[in-house]
Amino acid sequence: MTVNELAPGRSAAYRRALSRRDFRLLWLGSSVSLVGDGMTLVALTWLVLSQPDGVQRVGLLTVCYTLPVFVGGLLAGPVLDRFDKRHVLAADSVVRGVAMAAIPIMSAVGEVPEALPFVVAVVYGLFKMVPLAGFPAAIPDLVPERDRDAANALESLSFSLSGMAGPALGGLLIAWLGSEAVLAFDAVSYVVFAVAALAVRRPLTPRTRTDEPGPAHLPGDGTERPPGGGVLTLLGDRVLVMTTLAFMAFNIAMGMLMVTAPWLAGTRLDGGPRTLGLLLAALSAGELAGAVMAGARSPRTRPVRAIGVVQLVAAAGFLAILSVPHTLGVAAGFLVIGMFSAPMTIWAQSLRMARIPAPLRGRGFAVLRTLMQATPPIGAAAVTPLLAAGTLTPAVLVMAVVAAAPALALLAARP
């Protein structure tokens, strides 16, 4: 079969997903908001850097951005399962939009208090998990099962594109209009998301029973759905537990990579910041390519096994870092990591949608995504002493082993 013969089939799933008005509205609103968030990170960082002892305060800003995510993640799930997700997403957008607007408003009427950027970062972190859990929890109600890989790929594409476009656009606008104007744009982007959520016609209120069509045994993995009940019942689903632990381990390796990339650019590779930009661009380009391919075609083997295969290949990509001082070899490794980690995310998310009962989706996605968001800092802290000692090879081997071990467990398991 030729590439041209495959292309129509690959794009059909995306066309079907985007042809559904409610999903299209929510996805577009989320995408606009994500670009605004990418700009805001740069704008708040620049505001803090302009303060006395700005370099030291950037660390505090990072804590304010990340620490409240864990508290907010535990609170967001029950709210999403109790109320209509359209209204929860809209309320979240209003709250964070007001927080972002506070800085340009204070700047226009007087002076921005030094503590305000940190307060805004805390509000952002506290509510961050609402859309991160709410959007995927809504997808099964908006898109039929056969097109969920495409819908999840579109969400992944939004994250990748906003991760590239948001900071770049924010940096340009800060130089032209100032940080306050960038934060005003983010406030407007939240308004766009709120309007998009409220314009969704289909109610996104959780059902009191699991009334989705389908067999008790999920196709392709030979295991049963978890029984109804509280969110703790999900701990009895071996597939959910295994894949979540695999992602937590892989994210530890990714946390190590995010520290290793600037260290490489500064100490082992030529080009400095340009090389760092190249490495991060290669990672993002790989994620985009992997998301497009994974969303267009479901895995031909069992989902758990397919996730293990691509995770193992992504883990092998870490070994390319040992090709230093050859920049292109290292960049190729970053490309492989991105290309094969994206299908992991998309296929696992579709698997969770099939296995988590509808009344538990808000809590399920909130808890699982919060757990996975918690592990990158562990990797960052673990790799720092190794790099400070200049021992790159042990650091790379640790990254590869941490990423590969759960993949081998998934391949060896008989779920």
Automatic annotation (TrEMBL):
GO terms for cellular component: plasma membrane. The chain crosses the membrane at residues 25-49, 55-76, 88-109, 115-135, 156-176, 182-200, 239-264, 276-294, 306-324, 330-349, 370-389, 395-413. Residues 22-415 form the Major facilitator superfamily (MFS) profile domain. The keyword Cell membrane applies. It is found in: Cell membrane. GO terms for molecular function: transmembrane transporter activity. Residues 206-228 are annotated as: Disordered. It is a multi-pass membrane protein. Keywords: Cell membrane, Membrane, Transmembrane, Transmembrane helix. SUPFAM superfamilies: MFS general substrate transporter (SSF103473). Pfam families: MFS_1. PANTHER family: INTEGRAL MEMBRANE EFFLUX PROTEIN-RELATED (PTHR23513), STAPHYLOFERRIN A TRANSPORTER (PTHR23513:SF11). This is Predicted arabinose efflux permease, MFS family. It comes from Nonomuraea jiangxiensis. The lineage of its organism: Bacteria, Bacillati, Actinomycetota, Actinomycetes, Streptosporangiales.
